[in-house]
From TrEMBL:
Record key words, sorted: GTP-binding, Magnesium, Metal-binding, Nucleotide-binding
Source organism superkingdom: Eukaryota
Protein name (database record): GTP-binding protein 8
Family named by the database record: Belongs to the TRAFAC class TrmE-Era-EngA-EngB-Septin-like GTPase superfamily. EngB GTPase family.
GO cellular component: mitochondrion
Cross-referenced Pfam families: MMR_HSR1
GO molecular function: GTP binding; metal ion binding
Cofactor requirement: Mg(2+)
Residue ranges occupied by any EngB-type G domain in the UniProt entry: 58-229
Organism: Mortierella alpina (Oleaginous fungus)
InterPro entries: EngB_GTPase (IPR052279), G_ENGB_dom (IPR030393), GTP-bd (IPR006073), GTP-bd_ribosome_bio_YsxC (IPR019987), P-loop_NTPase (IPR027417)
Length: 231
């Protein structure tokens, strides 16, 4: 008789070593995504409590989370081509509220306070509850600086999201700070950790520079796909 461990070995021969190949956006999808993000972008509301969050709307929503100073607010400005729409700062812990923005009444973007160093201690309760219960939330983007790699605070948040079955995609920020070779090595290292530990991680890690505008169309296309907005 075949034992359980033999059956397991046979059916699941080895642990996943790398993300499966997911095709990136085509050039026509990138062009459409680029155009979409030129629709008028507006600030909707800031929320410091769940009661203040804009009522569940029918439009798809994506949220940006990550350690303080990782580049969340700058990325939203980059995506919507508006330098001053979201306030940014070189001082960590700048964004203190959940800030909601909308693009052309079709897509909602949420900028979050950072976690980790110099963040508010209360990150967690309210934000996690929002992430767990928001009906129109289509994907969570977790921003990571490839120069620093995954920190304990990142893996803790990913575990919380995994525990709630919430899908997230990793975006590497400030890629302008690294040479191509160093960036590729850092990305490979981060991916190998994600493959091992991050159960609900979308199997495609993107890289962006809000400073140089690199990678923004790929992220725009990924957001539109996640939001099921036709491309
Ligand atoms: N080199 C470089 N610097 C960036 C980039 N994006 C953001 N920064 C800088 O990083 C710092 C933090 O940017 P923010 O966008 O305010 O970061 P945040 O994640 O919103 O920070 P908190 O609100 O404090 O959590 C600022 O000094 C930005 O100018 C980038 O793509 N490249
Ligand atoms: Mg911010």
């Amino acid at each position: 008789m075949t034992s359980d461990s033999e059956i397991k070995k046979e059916r699941f021969p080895r642990k996943l070593q790398a993300f499966p190949f997911v095709p990136g956006a085509t050039s026509s999808e990138l062009a459409k995504a680029h155009k979409f993000f030129f629709l008028p972008a507006d600030f909707v509301k800031s929320a410091t409590s769940l009661a203040m969050i804009p009522e569940n709307t029918m439009i798809p929503e994506v949220a940006f989370i990550g350690r303080s100073n990782i580049g969340k607010s700058s990325l939203i400005n980059g995506l919507v081509n508006r330098n001053g729409l979201v306030k940014t700062s070189s001082k960590p812990g700048h964004t203190r509220m959940m800030n909601f923005f909308k693009i052309g009444d079709k897509l909602s973007l949420v900028d979050m306070p950072g976690y980790g160093w110099k963040s508010r201690d209360e990150w967690g309760g309210m934000i996690l509850s929002y992430l767990q219960h928001r009906k129109n939330l289509k994907r969570i983007y977790i921003l990571i600086d490839p120069s620093h790699g995954l920190k304990e605070s990142d893996t803790q948040i990913m575990k919380l999201l995994d525990g709630s079955g919430l899908s997230y995609q990793v975006v590497l920020t400030k890629v302008d700070k690294l040479s191509k070779t160093k960036y590729s090595a850092a990305k490979a290292q981060i991916e190998s950790q994600l493959v091992k530990d991050a159960i609900c991680c979308f199997p495609m890690v993107l890289g962006v520079s809000s400073k140089n505008k690199d990678g923004l169309d790929d992220l725009r296309a990924a957001i539109l796909k996640a939001g099921q907005l036709s491309l």
